[in-house]
Design goal:
The termini are far apart. It is built from 4 helices and no strands. With 101 residues, it is an all-alpha fold. Helix content is 57%, strand content 0%.
């Protein structure tokens, strides 16, 4: 049994919010997504990456954990194609938006 049991997406807190529904629909149409869950999946991934970056930015500059995990986050973002090679700072990770994916 090699199944992965971690969550990949998170449904919105308010199911019937007109502004959110219309913006999700625009994103689906712009990027050719199949369903809203694909939007939610990217939002969830982005939220986890940004949360980790926020936590690391509270640590001092030369902290070994910040250096190690920060490099890992930046590497992951470059691999996903979200950040460019020249934007290798944790501050840029906080500036990422849904449409950057």
């Amino acid at each position: 049994n090699y199944r992965n049991f971690s969550k990949t997406s998170k449904t919105p807190r308010r199911p019937f919010e007109a502004e959110r529904i219309s913006s999700e629909l625009q994103v689906c149409g712009k990027f050719g997504l199949r369903c809203k869950r694909e939007v939610w999946r990217v939002q969830y991934t982005l939220a986890k990456i940004r949360k980790a970056a926020r936590e690391l930015l509270t640590l001092p500059e030369k902290d070994p954990r910040r250096l190690f995990e920060g490099a890992a986050i930046l590497r992951r973002c470059v691999r996903l194609g979200v950040l460019s090679e020249k934007d290798q700072k944790l501050d840029y990770v906080l500036g990422l938006k849904l449409t950057d994916f």
